[in-house]
Amino acid sequence: MEKEVLSIVDKRNGSTYEVPIHHGTIRAMDLRQIKTGPDDFGLMTYDPAFMNTASCKSAITFIDGDKGILRYRGYPIEQLAEKCSFLEVAYLVLFGELPSDPQLKEWVGAITHHTMLHETTKHFLEGFRYDAHPMGMLVSTVAALSTVYPDARNIHDPQVRKLQIMRLIGKMPTIAAYTYRHSLGLPYVYPDNDFSYSENFMNMLWKMTEPKYAANPVLARALDILFILHADHEQNCSANVMRSVGSSHADPFLSTAAAAAALSGPLHGGANEEVLKMLDQIGSKDKIPAYIAKVKAGEFKLMGFGHRIYKNYDPRASVIKWAADKVFEVTGRNPKLDIALELERIALEDDYFVKRKLYPNVDFYSGIIYQAMGFKPEIFTVLFAIPRTAGWLAQWQELLEDGEQKIARPRQVYTGYEARDFVPMEKRGVPAATATP
Ligand code: SDX
User: Fold this and answer.
1) What pLDDT shows up at residue 334?
2) Residue 306 in contact with residue 356, Cβ under 8 Å?
3) FRET pair for 152, CA 20 to 30 Å: which of 78, 269, 315, 360?
4) Full set of structural domains in the chain with CATH
5) Concatenated DSSP letters for 329-370?
6) What is the pLDDT of residues 332-362, one digit of tens each?
7) E strand or H helix at 18, and its extent?
8) Closest CA to 47 of 412, 312, 320, 335
9) Is 170 left (phi over 0), alpha (psi -120 to 50) or beta?
10) How far is ligand 1, taken at its centre, from the CA of residue 333, in Å?
11) pLDDT for residue 436
């Protein structure tokens, strides 16, 4: 094979350069040698939204957007969703290998014993209005936990990192459930160590006066599968935030809170809530063509459709559709599914979407299942944040262990004023033409 080298000719002065190619990339820093003179800073790349920039090397998740492939540590998502529990997958994502039976038992035991929240957390939550959005409460509470665990700042100690990872994975469902109970004015339900991760979450959400909550096993399994599907997704917006904040050596609670804040946006994890609002707005199948026409006119986006990486069907959406059938056998069919299926059918035949390679993504169907399971749309993104905490922490850990990584500090293309002198108050606001020097 030809040498993995890029030859560059700078037509400004005829200079030529040879830049090595590694993993299908060139190092941006190798462009800095391309100058027109000694005072020239050298070339940079300009890449708004990092459309074509690899920010790191990672061994956690592989996505092939054209083929619709998603693998955690090499294992296809379809196999993991069928054969594993979420905590088993969280272990894989975090530590790189599927756990042995003793390892899994120890891991599940450790997470189970980190589900309790410091009682002071209730006071954080009581500061929120009854109608506060659960994501705002979750982000704030996770950040506040950094004050409960000041030892988390010692990020260079692997044992300290592992303890914070267990705390965050163990406590996210408890925080999520507490925000939900707060919004309903219901007393908090403490974790019950007899339950699995997903059953315990359901227990903390929905236990009322019964002595022991009984989770429907089909729904608990479906929730576990949904958690597996949402565990990680390489360098998505919120993972990028986790790495960026983590690169300043902030503690993992504050880094996770920042990542969850990024996830809350409607273009990212907030889309699952927006999909339900969209389906409610459409109302019935006969209204779909008119709605699609507005999307094509650019009035708004079709929520739950499109993806930066997937230019084929999001493999998670396929598994979610399978899980939906299992859930609906228990809960009854969510009528919104019929609108969603018709919307997908019409969109996938329409050239606007086909040309732009817009397919349903993970958020298109997840909300429909969540709603059928009894979750309110406001908590849907919280349901995304719970499992994604494992992915964020895996990305965070990988960042800290990568000798090439430093504090994230991009450059810019400056388009502002050149140097100019101060303007005293009396001369401000006076149109330049009439201003007296
Ligand atoms: C997640 O990155 C990840 O991995 C994220 C995620 C994860 O697991 O972490 O997979 C989770 O965030 C899934 C995405 C959830 N968001 C949505 O469903 C919101 C709707 N989707 C869009 O906003 C959009 O598709 C994005 C944000 C997901 C991706 O946007 P890109 O890659 O920046 O693409 P773009 O906005 O440049 O769109 C390219 C073209 C544009 O049209 P033209 O300007 O070329 O004419 O496609 C159009 C866009 O207008 N387009 C859409 C559309 N998405 C893109 N048109 C209508 N409806 C849409 N949903």
Assistant:
1) 87
2) yes
3) 269
4) 72-410 (1.10.580.10)
5) HHH---THHHHHHHHHHHHHHSHHHHHTT--B-HHHHHHHHH
6) 988 899 999 999 999 889 999 999 999 999 8
7) strand 15-20
8) 412
9) alpha
10) 28
11) 59
Residue 296: CB within 6 Å of ligand 1? no
Q: Interior CA angle at 155 toward 140 and 249, to 5°? A: 65
Residues of the chain with pLDDT under 70: 1-2, 432-437
Cβ-contact 130, 182 below 8 angstroms: yes
Residue nearest to atom 13 of ligand 1 (CA): 268
Q: Residue 335: its pLDDT value, please?
A: 87
The Cα-based distances of 288 to 126, 273, 283, 298, 359 in angstroms read 42, 19, 9, 15, 16
Query: What is the pLDDT, as a whole number, of residue 432?
Result: 62
Query: What pLDDT was estimated at residue 433?
Result: 65
C-alpha span between 137 and 228 (Å, rounded):
24
Kindly state if the Cβ of 174 falls inside 6 Å of ligand 1: no
DSSP state of 258: H
Pocket test for ligand 1, best of 228, 274, 308 (most atoms within 8 A of CB): 308
Just list the catalytic residues: 268, 307, 363
Query: DSSP alpha helices (H): ranges in 185-268?
Result: 197-206, 217-229, 237-246, 252-263
